[in-house]
């Protein structure tokens, strides 16, 4: 893996070079093994938290981990194009628009002992801006090359706070063109419901049952690229004990191995549908 500046990453994309890189400020990673018509993203995978913010933060390390999406990059790591955040959403949230990307309060609890200074906010928002400049360059290149693109926007969610049964996988579709893409959304939902998971976990999958696809990553791409479908895909945290901060690697491995095949198959169907 190389360490590259944002401009170097964008130049490589424009030249259709294959590479694996971390941004030079270590805020995100991008791997392109091959230029294909689909992207896998894990914007909330990151847990890094700038050291100069530690003393000012009222949330513990565990509280931050609890609200992040640990291991979501691991679910998709073997796909050809993988984009993943490395910084915690508690510093700045890549799935929120810039004006709301920095929390003052997070999940009902004040985040900072003292309000962040303008310079502290600026440093975080510059990373948010840089990430989206790369997203724009990447999807532009893929739409130019393939005509239509599908983005698998992978997240996870805590299930113990719900007072009802919730699905293992939820697709949020309220901000996509369902008239145009509805059949492909249903195909993805059906495919995920067939995941074979350890410990007799049934891979229930529903649409807009817990979350509705209101994230900025989806909205940014959907607004800027009319031929790109973003599938906001939330996994219930069946792959860890969210109360004890224990990860279950056998569950992660099962998801990752099957997603490698399912993403490829679904992307092929998407490409065939929109290029027939």
TrEMBL record:
One Pfam family of this chain: FGase
Gene3D superfamilies named among the record's database cross-references: Zn-dependent exopeptidases
Organism domain of life: Bacteria
Designated name of the protein: N-formylglutamate amidohydrolase
Originating organism: Marixanthomonas spongiae
């Amino acid at each position: 893996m190389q360490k590259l500046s944002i401009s170097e990453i964008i130049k490589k994309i424009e030249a259709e070079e294959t590479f694996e890189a971390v941004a030079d400020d270590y805020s995100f990673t991008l791997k392109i093994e091959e230029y294909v018509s689909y992207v896998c993203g894990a914007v909330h995978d990151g847990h890094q938290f700038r050291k100069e913010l530690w003393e000012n933060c009222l949330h513990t390390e565990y509280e931050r981990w609890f609200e992040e999406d640990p291991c979501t990059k691991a679910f998709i790591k073997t796909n050809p194009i993988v984009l993943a955040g490395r910084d915690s959403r508690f510093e700045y949230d890549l799935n929120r628009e810039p004006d709301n990307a920095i929390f003052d309060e997070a999940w009902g609890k004040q985040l900072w002992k003292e309000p962040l200074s303008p310079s502290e906010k600026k440093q975080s928002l510059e990373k948010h801006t840089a990430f989206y400049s790369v997203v724009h360059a990447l999807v532009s290149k893929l739409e130019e090359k393939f005509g239509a693109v599908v983005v698998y926007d992978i997240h996870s969610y805590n299930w113990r706070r719900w007072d009802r049964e919730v699905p293992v996988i939820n697709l949020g579709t309220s901000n996509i063109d369902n008239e145009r893409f509805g059949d492909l959304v249903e195909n993805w939902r059906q495919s995920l419901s067939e995941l074979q998971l350890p410990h007799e976990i049934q891979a229930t999958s529903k649409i807009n049952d817990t979350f509705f696809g209101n994230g900025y990553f989806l909205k940014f791409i959907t607004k800027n690229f009319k031929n790109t479908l973003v599938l906001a895909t939330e996994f219930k945290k069946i792959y860890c004990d969210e109360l004890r901060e224990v990860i279950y690697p056998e569950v992660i491995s099962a998801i990752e191995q099957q997603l490698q095949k399912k993403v490829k198959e679904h992307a092929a169907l998407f490409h065939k549908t929109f290029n027939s």
